[in-house]
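In response to the reviewer comment on reproducibility (Comment 2.3), we provide here a single inverse folding case reported in full, input and output, so that an independent group could reproduce the run without further information from us. The structure tokens appear first.
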């Protein structure tokens, strides 16, 4: 009989080092009284750790084994994180640009009727007679060998209908303002920067936010609760405070991002050429660091917006989930329910965060100090707002929500009338439809202006929920297993 090449000694386990589920003998002595663990708060909120893209890509960077010799892996991880964040920002940036433009657009109730061009009949014979009598003296004393001046020539050549004929696509005077100048975009990268303004600023903001917030949270926890057990959640005020501090530190980047999105696309009215130029002009003309950090029209909306978002994101999903599955549920035991709870919480939170975000965007596009008003690609309010309450009140009382605006349509009806001689004569009768003014309550309130982009945000939340259900799922062998 053949023997195995391995020895049974390799399978031997020392009884002293084996797992023991029974308490050891006390030999007649009193067992030590265990210390009471720290009392956990009564509320429940999401226990998922803060997302950090750098440590997710390379978890070994957060261990003690990775010392200063791991600089190469750190650099590769930073580059990969930046590329991933830039790609995700490029995908979501069109929706953010559309939402921001809708939020800052000023739509007054009394917009007026659009001016329609009326046909003007010109008597050619009468004009010819006047031209012969008026230009007779000039042509008599004119030098036939002289070069014609610009005064005697029209500024642009026109066709028989009066439209200007473009002699070159490089002419700035005859180019419509909605057309991007030819040759101004250096390849696909230059065109992408034109179509996605603020993309680089958004990427840098997201990277810094996901990196600074966990560091500030860990610092606050070590400062106020150094002896807190890892199995107990810290108070809710700590992660909210870390988000508020992060939003305050990165508030100039958010201001620059909004200005770059709202600026005019035409080269003649474009105020900023990029993020660095925008930061330089804002620091120079709007009060320096004190102006962009501590101005009441920027500081109060920043603190409020930075506090409401994490407060809703951390507390509301747990509240919704506890109402569905009870207070003892967890994301590990009911992942689908908690995913649905996060969807419901995100949709409900939009009714609170969107008005605050809209007011913040309106105040960000206002210039302060010695800066000239911003030339935007959408209509802005001519008079500046005085604060958050003033902005909220004027949006409700001055603007309308029935978008798109419909105007009364005018149509022409031709009729044929015969006179006494039997000759038919065609006449045009203008029939104007009834006015649409005063139809619906949405025209008399600006409540809808506070929720511009609500459909886009809800659609994005539903899309992420479907992706989580489709690509997620609970593994059968996941979790702790006792033998």
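Designed residues, in position order:
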């Amino acid at each position: 009989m053949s023997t195995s090449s391995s020895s049974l000694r390799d399978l031997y386990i020392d009884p002293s080092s084996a797992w023991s589920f029974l308490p050891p003998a006390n030999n007649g002595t009193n067992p030590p009284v265990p210390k009471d663990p720290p009392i956990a708060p009564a509320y429940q909120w999401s226990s998922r750790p803060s997302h950090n893209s750098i440590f997710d890509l390379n978890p070994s960077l957060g261990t003690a084994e990775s010392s200063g010799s791991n600089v190469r892996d750190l650099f590769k991880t930073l580059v990969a994180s930046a590329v991933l964040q830039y790609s995700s920002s490029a995908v979501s940036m069109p929706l953010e640009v559309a939402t921001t433009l809708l939020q800052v657009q000023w739509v007054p109730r009394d917009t007026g009727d659009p001016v329609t061009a009326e046909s003007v009949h010109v008597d050619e014979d009468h004009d010819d007679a006047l031209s012969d009598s008026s230009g007779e003296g000039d042509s008599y004393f004119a030098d036939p060998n002289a070069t014609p001046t610009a005064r005697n020539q029209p500024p642009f050549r026109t066709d028989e209908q009066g439209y200007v004929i473009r002699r070159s696509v490089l002419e700035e005077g005859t180019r419509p303002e909605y057309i991007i100048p030819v040759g101004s975009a250096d390849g696909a990268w230059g065109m992408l920067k034109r179509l996605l303004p603020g993309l680089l600023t958004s990427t840098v903001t997201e990277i810094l936010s996901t990196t600074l917030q966990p560091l500030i949270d860990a610092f606050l926890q070590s400062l106020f609760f150094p002896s807190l057990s890892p199995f107990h959640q810290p108070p809710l005020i700590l992660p909210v405070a870390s988000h508020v501090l992060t939003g305050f530190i990165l508030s100039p980047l958010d201001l620059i991002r909004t200005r770059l999105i709202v600026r005019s696309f035409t080269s003649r009215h474009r105020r900023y050429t990029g993020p660095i130029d925008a930061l330089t002009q804002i620091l120079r003309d709007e009060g320096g660091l004190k102006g962009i950090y501590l101005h009441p029209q920027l500081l109060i909306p920043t603190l409020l917006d930075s506090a409401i978002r994490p407060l809703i994101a951390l507390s509301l999903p747990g509240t919704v989930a506890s109402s569905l599955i009870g207070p003892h549920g967890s994301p590990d035991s009911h992942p689908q329910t908690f995913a649905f709870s996060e969807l419901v919480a995100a949709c409900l939170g939009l009714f609170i965060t969107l008005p605050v975000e809209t007011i913040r965007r309106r105040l960000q596009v206002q210039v302060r100090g010695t800066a000239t008003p911003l030339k935007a690609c959408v209509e802005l309010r001519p008079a500046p707002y005085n604060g958050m309450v003033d902005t909220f009140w004027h949006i409700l009382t001055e603007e309308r929500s029935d978008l798109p605006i419909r105007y009364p349509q005018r149509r022409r009806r031709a009729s044929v009338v015969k006179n006494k001689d039997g000759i038919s004569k065609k006449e045009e009768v203008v029939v104007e439809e009834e006015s649409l003014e005063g139809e619906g309550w949405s025209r008399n309130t600006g409540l809808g202006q506070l929720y511009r982009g609500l459909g886009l945000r809800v659609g994005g939340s539903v899309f992420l929920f479907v992706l989580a259900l489709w690509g997620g799922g609970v593994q059968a062998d996941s979790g702790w297993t006792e033998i």
